[in-house]
Amino acid sequence: MAVLRLLVAAAPVAVLLWAILRLRWKAHRAGALAWIVAVTGAATFFGADPVLVATASAKGLSLALLVMLIVWAAVFLYGIADDVGAVETIARRIVGSTSDPLLLALLLAWSFSGFLQGIAGFGVPVAVVAPLMVLAGFSPTTSVAAVMLGHSWAITFGSMGSSFYTISLVTRVDAAVLGPVLALMFFLPIVFTGLGVAHLQGGWPAVRRALPVVLVAATLMDGLMWALNVLEAAPVSSMLPGLLGSLVVWAMSRSSVYRPSLPRHEPRSPGLSFRWAFLPYGLLTVLSLAAQLPPLKEATAGFRFALSYPQQVTELGFRVAPQEAYAPIRLVGHPAPLLLLSGLLTYLAYRSRGYWKPGAFGRAWHSTVRQTTGTTVAVSLMVMMALVVADSGMAATLARAAEALGARAYPLASPFIGLLGAFVTGSNTNSNVMFGPLQLYAAEALSLTAVLAAAAQTMGGSIGSGVAPDKALIGVSVVGGDAREADVMRLVLPYGLLGVFLIGVEVLLLAVGKLL
């Protein structure tokens, strides 16, 4: 019977993977089937009554709403910035900053793509930056692979922190505690992805030449990421480090070591200046930091929306603690209101300067609906499935099985679980939803900390989402030429696997040394 329960507990995730990989279903269809399988298994073999199933599913929708509000607002603000030409202006400044191919690759594929990931995600970095790299003279296949790998360091805190808040919620680790630790652990992936882009551009000679730039830039980027998380400004802790990294690489390109003999000059184009192009994200940064000021936080603490859920117990005795104010949405502090306020202030400023294009709000809204509808349904169903698996005791059963790996092998393997979920679904958020509860229960069974489990899961998912097939498909579709999805995947996947292995080593060392 124990073996049967283990197979039933594993069935929802197995069905999800089978539907996506073998049947090639869209994520929302696969998520619906996985939720049905989870509900059936929970009711039949784990003693979950209809009230528990309904409560777990409702908790999933609460969590999905918190995350998707961030996504909707982030994509909407990006749509406004793109419509008025702000993104093009920023990209043009980056492309025209140097003619050194190595530094240009780092600027575009590593730091600027991380900046874009911090803003919107959803394949936007690949769709925007890969064509720029082709125009700058890189091959289509290398361009797509470099951006896929290069922006993956920014995915956990990208899309205004949607994946970060998801892993915090599903593992029940306070975001204020997890954020600074996770930021420090990301130093290794930031360095690795930068050197990986250099290797893709020019092999080992390029890696040696890029090492000083990458180390200096990565140190400053990670330091800023840590500081922002200490200030509880996680929503901008990919965007601002990406921007800082771009400035550092640009500054080092001016040095005698890297500055080319024939500097590249881009003609000035009419329209927005760089300062005005960056306005939406400058406003967002100021608002995000202001929202964390103690007096403002205390004064607005009661302005939030959240539901409470009662305790549940299965017929087998598995107990789910009551949840007071589950997945709260703060009116001041949640990224979505800050994003919308940034959009409103941008509109007022641009209109006063004559930069605003009539109908931009409508076009941004239609773009947001088009980009996020499928994701909204998929995330909702997958979160519902994950909460049913967790609250019925199925995740605890899987975690007990994971004990067989032992307290030494599991930390090394745990980031690959995150990679698997993100690689299959194309989303670190989805991976965190699917496997976050499993990682938590496994960590508890092996006497590992929840912080370390959460970090391993989302760091592996960050790299996995970057090198996922859906990103390759986006890249190939926008660059054209002779680029093929299979060629891109063959090129970039070994880098992704190596990066996740290094994260596993980092997690293992922290676990063995009991540093976390």
Structure explained in plain terms:
The chain has a two-stranded antiparallel ribbon. The protein has helices at residues 2-21, 27-45, 50-83, 86-95, 101-119, 124-135, 140-150, 158-170, 175-185, 187-230, 239-253, 274-277, 279-290, 294-299, 335-353, 360-391, 394-402, 406-425, 428-445, 450-466, 469-479, 485-512; strands at 304-309, 312-313, 319-320, 323-330. By secondary structure, the chain is mainly alpha-helical. The protein is globular, with a radius of gyration of 22 Å. The model is unreliable at 261-269 (pLDDT under 50). A hairpin with a 5-residue loop joins strand 2 and strand 3 (319-320). It has one domain. It starts with a helix and ends with a helix. The protein contains 22 helices and 4 strands. Helix 1 (2-21) packs antiparallel against helix 2, helix 5 packs across helix 7 and helix 5 packs across helix 10.
